[in-house]
Amino acid sequence: MKRQKIYILIGILIIVLLGGFFINKKYYPTLLVSPSSQISPSDAISLSPTPTSSPSPKESPTPTTKTLPSSYLIKNFPFQSQAPFANWDQLHDEACEEAAIILVKWWDDSHSTISAQTMDSEILRMVDWEIKNWGSHKDLTIKETAQMAKEFYGLRLTSKYDITIADIKEEVSQNHPVIVPTAGRLLGNPYFRQPGPIYHMLVVIGYSGNNLIVQDIGTRRGEHYQYDQVILFNAIHDWNGSPENIEQGQKAMLVLQ
User: Fold this and answer.
1) Which of 51, 130, 190, 252 is the most exposed place for a label (fewest CB within 10 A)?
2) Are 178 and 254 in contact (CB under 8 A)?
């Protein structure tokens, strides 16, 4: 009798368990997750926010910047001032563009020197050419200066605008002379006839530290003259037709390449 009761209790327990299983499957099917739909550890990791990390050098290579020499000088560059006989009349006072072109031409022709007589004769010839072709001897933009250099000497100079100090140094470090137009009185050169030229061109032929080395044809003491690079750069302005607006001219240069 006792054993019979045990069988009855076991049967009741089995019925209860089976009933619970079928009820659970019918009313709560979403609670049953098959093994194939379980989230793997790797999937769980991909659902979490991706941490931000710095790209490896292979993923994002650092752009290389050209390293310039700490100093450079274009050697054997000739010099004479724009008034080689110290005759600072109106013609010679306005002859900086012509003198700059002449020095670049002589260097390009492998001449390390130029006599005062040759410099003066070439300036006079070039001024005559301007009067014949343009009607007057006047201040020139770098574009006009390049045109005159090409038509008078066959010398090709490249105009570049919106330049930086680094642009000037890069050209010079490649042995390219650079002619820059300036608001001359901003240069503060003590050897100029004061107060100095309103508009002035000179030739950059080197640099050392924070100085730019130039052939400043506006003074007989201008050979290898050194300007603080910031002072010279701030003075660079192309001619825009008016002395009153000289400081509004573009940052520009002419390069012999």
Assistant:
1) 51
2) yes
Alpha carbon distance 77, 12 (integer Å): 115
201 forms beta bridges with 181
237/214 Cα distance (integer angstroms): 17
pLDDT in tens, the chain (257 residues): 555 655 666 666 566 555 554 444 444 444 333 333 343 434 333 334 444 444 444 444 444 457 899 999 999 999 999 999 999 999 999 999 999 999 999 999 999 999 999 999 999 999 999 999 999 999 999 999 999 999 999 999 999 999 999 999 999 999 999 999 999 999 999 999 999 999 999 999 999 999 999 999 999 999 999 999 999 999 999 999 999 999 999 999 999 98
Polymer length of the chain: 257
Domain of 100 in residue numbering reads as 71-256
Instruction: Specify if 149 maps to a domain.
Output: yes
- Nearest-10 crossing angle of helices 142-153, 96-108: 50
CATH code: domain of residue 166: 3.90.70.10
Q: Is residue 231 part of a domain?
A: yes
Counts of helices then strands in the chain (DSSP H, E):
8, 7
Contacts of 101 (CB under 8 A, 6+ apart): 126, 145, 148, 149, 152, 153, 155, 157, 179
| End-to-end CA separation in angstroms for the chain | 119
- Output the pTM of the full model: 0.75
Q: How many domains does the chain have?
A: 1
